[in-house]
Amino acid sequence: MKAIILFLALIGLSKARPQLFRNTIQQVRFVPYPTILRNYYDLDNPRGYKYAVQTSDGFNNAVIGEIKNPGTDQESLAVEGQYSYQGPDGKMYTVHYTADENGFQPSGEHLTGSANTKRKLGIPSAALASLAGGGLG
After folding, report:
1. For a surface tag, which of 10, 46, 128, 130 has the fewest beta carbons within 10 Å of its beta carbon?
2. How far apart are CA 110 and CA 115, in angstroms?
3. Is there a contact between 58 and 83 (Cβ–Cβ < 8 Å)?
4. CB–CB of 95/107 below 8 Å?
5. Which UniProt keywords apply (predicted)?
6. Is 125 among the domain residues?
């Protein structure tokens, strides 16, 4: 009985070892991580911050953050920036954006739909009248 268990255990171990085939070894290729070419940052400014990064794969990122209305009830952070990257089709794509009390507002030639349109602020007067009980007309 012990011999059968030992024999089955050895068969299980031999089948569990990694199976290396020549065709799978040839498919593995080394893809290097992008290196940082430029890295600038200024985080010591009490009214905001700046940073910029550029990597060897074409990625660029630049951001400026500024505190608006410091020390008041209306204090907020406003951020402007842009980033660029190379898409799978080989083209460079750039997104410019603003993020403030009105939300994140991206823009870029390749963006479609609501992501590339300016946000309309305010509520139409007819809607306000309806909420106040005046009806829509």
Report:
1. 46
2. 10
3. no
4. yes
5. Cuticle, Signal
6. no
What is the count of structural domains for the chain?
1
Q: Which of 103, 55, 43, 60 is nearest to 78 (CA)?
A: 103
Q: Show Cβ contacts of residue 105 under 8 Å, excluding neighbours closer than 6 positions.
A: 97, 98, 99, 118, 119
Q: Which domain holds residue 83?
A: 36-116
The dihedral through the CA atoms of 96, 99, 104, 105 has a sign that is: negative
Identify residue 95 by its one-letter amino acid code: V
15 located within any domain? no
Q: What does the pLDDT look like over 11-46, one tens digit per residue?
A: 877 777 666 665 555 555 666 888 999 999 988 888
Q: Give 59-75 pLDDT, tens digit per residue.
A: 999 999 999 988 888 88
| Residues in contact with 51: Cβ distance below 8 Å, sequence separation at least 6, in sequence order | 40, 41, 42, 43, 61, 62, 63
In a domain, 43, yes or no: yes
- For residue 3, give the DSSP letter: H
Sign of CA dihedral 112, 113, 117, 119: negative
88: left (phi over 0), alpha (psi -120 to 50) or beta: alpha
